[in-house]
Known about the structure:
By secondary structure, the protein is mainly beta.
Amino acid sequence: KGGVAVSEDGGRTWKKSNNGIPDNSVCTNFLLDPTTTAGSQTLFVSVFDRGIYKSTDSGKTWGIVNNGLGKNLFAWQLRQNSNGRLFVLFARGESGGKVVDGAIYFSDDKAETWSQLPLPEGINGPHDLLLDPIHADIMYVSCWPRRSDRKDINGGVIKTEDGGRSWKQVFDDRV
């Protein structure tokens, strides 16, 4: 049925831990805040077409934390950089027969509020986000191309060295 499950015996047995997450939720990614301690660990889960849920009691209960997110809730990935900034990547998709642009959001207050990270014009299919483990401002985003005039454009890998204020294309196998 989807949702969250927890194991307390190294994965031999599992039990449901969905208190606060709707049934039939498709969880796509988990993130454990490494600064929290056992018993009161902060966890985040991305739930496709629902957004982000947060637990501050090691996954016993969950609450939705979508304040500031746009209409696209196709939550795909969660990441945290070395400075503690959270990132969530939303996949490009389709809703009501129309393309819904993908996006990346960030939070500096443990997911209480989110702000959109500007991507280069024409980039609407972010697919994977890689954060440099040492330099918090360096990020890579692999992007699905988009269709324009019967050809694919704006795919490949983009990089920022200033936390997303500017980007440059670093890989495009079509050129």
